[in-house]
Amino acid sequence: MNLTPDSKVIVQGTTISPSLTQAVMQMKTYGTQIVACVSPGQGGQELNEIPVFDLVEQAIASVGDIDISVIFVHPYHVLDAALEAMAAGIRQLIIVTEGMPPLDMVHLVRKAEATETLVVGPNCSGIIIPDQLLLGTHPSEFYKPGNVGLLSRSSTLTYEVAAELTQAGLGQSVAVSIGSDFIVGSSFLQWLEILDEDENTEVIVLVGEMGGTSEEEAASYIAEAIDKPVVAYIAGLHAPATKLLGHASLLMTSKVVSNMVDAGTVESKIAAFKTAEVLVAERPSEIPILVKKAIKRRKK
């Protein structure tokens, strides 16, 4: 992972639109080095003094090697955009687009594994390193620098938890919305490993939700391999048990939890974290209290 204020970033968009312009300017204003935009058929233009190219390879020929691509294209164009970026040597992709076809995502995940490309998303708000780097659509006012690593499937829950931490005087080392489509590029497990090795992160907050089994897998991985304290919060405790929410990746299965009863429910996830001796918050406002408790435990 190479995420620094010096990282060179391009934005891939289907067309130059007001929403894309707003996202690009939000990132640029935050300090992210947006060196080019790629929008097929609109090459030769400029977007607030940022050059626009038809192809990724044209952008690289003009501005040099690129570290990261942030992708905003139409769901059915994401695979082509991502493959184009990877073919040009870009090894970190942030896919903000929602609703990418699952089979396209399966293809992309396989290609990413073969090329050792880190993919965040789809259907995510991306990554923010407070006061250093914004890759996506995080509202920066909720964040401040600190030593709490924040991982979440949901975008809006990431903002809410970040706001709770910030109000309690707990800044963030990095916040990552990994995405809430059925299939996503990088998992809780990958990011837990990254943050466990990150010298700027002292404690990890993991925010999950009902559906799928990624939280149960994460709990098992934390118990086996993670040294830093982890605080978890699972949204949806009071949601109707029979209602499938939009972020519920119920098509996913896991050998780790294949024998669990009611895997994928909030109760199952909470039980898995408690078994792993992870502190579990009942509501977002309780997260800062548990983070401070976890930090005190570690210092003893």
UniProtKB/TrEMBL annotation:
List, alphabetically, the InterPro entries matched.
CoA-bd (IPR003781), CoA_lig_alpha (IPR005810), NAD(P)-bd_dom_sf (IPR036291), SUCC_ACL_C (IPR005811), Succinyl-CoA_synth-like (IPR016102)
What keywords tag this UniProt record?
Ligase, Nucleotide-binding
Q: For this UniProt entry, what's an example GO CC term?
A: succinate-CoA ligase complex (ADP-forming)
Q: Which domain of life is it from?
A: Bacteria
GO molecular function, one example? succinate-CoA ligase (GDP-forming) activity
Its EC number(s): 6.2.1.5
Task: Output the Pfam families linked to this UniProt entry.
Answer: CoA_binding, Ligase_CoA
Q: What class of enzyme is it?
A: ligase
**BP GO terms, sorted:** tricarboxylic acid cycle
Location of the active site: H247
Q: What is this protein's record name?
A: Succinyl-CoA synthetase, NAD(P)-binding, alpha subunit
- Look up and give the organism this protein is from: Planktothrix tepida PCC 9214
